[in-house]
Request: fold
Amino acid sequence: MTSNPVGKLRLNLKRTFLIGFAFFGILLLWQVYDSWCPTFLTDIFARRMYGMSSAELKEAAAEKILNVQWIVGIIMACDNLAALILLPIFGNLSDKTRTPIGKRMPFILTGTMVSAIAFPFIPLLFHYNNVFGMVAVMVVVLIFMMMYRNPAVALMPDITPKPLRAKANGIINIMGYFGGAFATVLGIFLKLSDYITAKDEARKLWIIEIPFVVASVLMVISAFVLFFTIKENKLAEELKDEMALGEALAATETPVSDDAPMSRANRRMLLAILGAEFLWFMADNAIGTYIGNYVIYYLGSASSATMLLTIIGGVASVAGFATAGLIADKIGRKWTIASGLCITVAGLFLMCFAKPMAVNEATGYNQFPPLLYLIWAIKGFGMALVHNCSFPMVVELCPNSRIGKFTGYYYAASMSAQTVTPVLLGLVFRMTGAWRALPVYATALFALSFAVFSLLVKNIKAKKVENTHGLDAIDGD
Reply:
């Protein structure tokens, strides 16, 4: 067991990197799911409602594509509704679980394996126009990913002292973006728009199946890496002293304890953070859910442009996650998040002015507006600052024995937002008949989130700690 002098805490970079494999699997699946599934749903419901594919419908009556979006929104929202219910349940259960392999690992392994097996059936059933089967498999995947997600996210604060969690969160999020990058690169070469615009007999299943199979394989590999390198029970015992010291140095208005109810001041802080989080996830999920359809059906560009956006946003996000911890040390987590929201609002305001461009004769698709690449870089950096510090702020307010439960609160806020926003924006599309409602809707919600967060959340900086450097920071477990 490694001991630390009082006042000196160490962020073990090697261990934090390995915990990041949990995020690798999570963002890998979500990137594939969010990039492909809304367009699958748009196409399959266009066939059911109008007897034409979405590509044929776009040429014949483009406004009918917008009429389908509210149904797409309901399906995507139902998935999130299940998550809203299940995430707190699995978080609370994992807090109370005791097994030879730890309290989080049984949920991580079971959720990963079932999701990985079911995931490739989504494009298969879509290809054969089986809407009920496809939606049913989507539900199965989401349920078991909820079993995985909360315990996987709770694993980092389980074994990281409170003052170090913002920096640790940056590292595991960077790992997650590497997972999303795998899916994004596949989407550049396997263009969903080529599949959607092809005649029925020319649609090739492998174009949409390969990303889902690759995602499943990499998810399983990442889960096994996590299982064989992170020994929960051993680490919990070794890190008792560091976790206790981190509790004493936490950035909370009043101390937290297993033996006392949550103080009024801490409860007020928690509700303010969760309220602002609800609003920024409403905005962010609106973009994530509908950007693929926005590119294909409004801009008329190839779906590979969406993947390039994701890469640019991912690179900017990595820069944001790499620097957010350092920024938070200087100005505090509150103003780091507020700065990120302000940056994001500025970027998405520019998106309100994006319009379809002329056709590129070589590809047959409309040219993609270069301005959107800049916007995605701005948004990626800004939201990295937000996500890096927001989760640590929530789990800062709970004792170490309730991390899963408070992780559930964090995800309850985000998933309730993601339940509401696809349906609400789908209805906005139907009422306005305008794809340009997407950036206006997102910009307004991000601005409201900034106002709530900056006015209601206090800036409480953690007490200064001396972090170890050099080889000592990456020593063994």
Notes: Residues 12-460 form a domain with the Growth Hormone; Chain: A; fold (CATH 1.20.1250.20). The CA atoms of residues 124 and 148 lie 24 Å apart. Confidence is low (pLDDT under 50) at residues 1-7, 464-477.
